[in-house]
Amino acid sequence: MTIQTLARAAVQAVEPYKSARRLGSSGDIWLNANESPFDNEYVIQSNRLNRYGTCQPEALIQAYAQYAGVSTEQVLTSRGADEGIELLIRAFCEPGQDDILYCPPTYGMYRVSSATADVSSREVPLTPDWQLDLPAIAENLAGVKLCFLCSPNNPTGNLNRRKDIVALLEMTQGKSLVVVDEAYIDFCPEASTVDLLQDFPHLVILRTLSKAFALAGLRCGFTLSSPDVIEVLLKVIAPYPVPTPVAAIAQEALTTSGVQRMQQQVSTLNENKARLQQELSQSEAITVFAGEGNYLLFRCPDSESVFQACWDQGVTLRKTPAVPECLRVSIGSWEECEAALKVIRQALSAQGAVK
Ligand SMILES: *Cc1c(COP(=O)(O)O)cnc(C)c1O
Q: 3-36+258-349 belongs to which homologous superfamily?
């Protein structure tokens, strides 16, 4: 018996998530993981690390509740939004029995987290304009405990229509939770569904400090829901899930001045995005899709060779196998965007695709 075969059958079958960092990058211009280009400095205190922290550091929960406009009983913090996904599946889905549902093309971790838990996933593809296919979802809801939506959606960049989310919430009442992944919502805060928490206790919202708050390396995320859902999640989370230095840095990021800095950086990135979108659109060969997050999806001829040409020039983009002929570019500093623009144009003109 090999070590591999000792693993649970479900785990043996898992195809791990291909994170940007696992796939690697080339050169210095990393536009493949939707990270922020802003490297904000924090003072890290390293005393009192002999003591455990609290399970849910009160000041941190309070700070995020205030930022999100909810009460503290509606907030759970975890190791990134990714851990939120995993906790939901572990807490709400009976392995081998209950299913999750999600709508590809979308974020890959819903599939991976459910697969490792031996929970099957039902894929109900988005419509051709990347909106929810509500009739198809309705037909597939039996036995589904969690419906994952992603808005703004990664990698397509568009929002789900609010009335569709409301329709799904009405359709699922008393049957399953609706999880709206709002990892990128700080780039378009007016589109949040957080106000719907009042009316729908089975709505769950995932948030993170990894993107707009420029803290991907910190590993800090939040789950917002009704107190009942948060209470269930608290049963399955590890006893000391939040490292003390993480809580301290996250709290600093969530002070009034921290939030203001984030908002300024968001407006810079949104400006860079608009500029990059406009510039890319000038090439007839490229179709750029409007994006609400800190990334743009674009279609171009032979995207594989464009990806490779950029890679060879030290610019790393993200391939999007679920959206054929497309690439995703994260919004960096304007210098980084310009560098990407240059190599993308070069690659296309080398193909003869551009006049
Ligand atoms: C980046 C991302 C996450 C993961 O966030 P972490 O807090 O870094 O774990 C979750 N959902 C989506 C859609 C993302 O793009």
A: Aspartate Aminotransferase, domain 1 (3.90.1150.10)
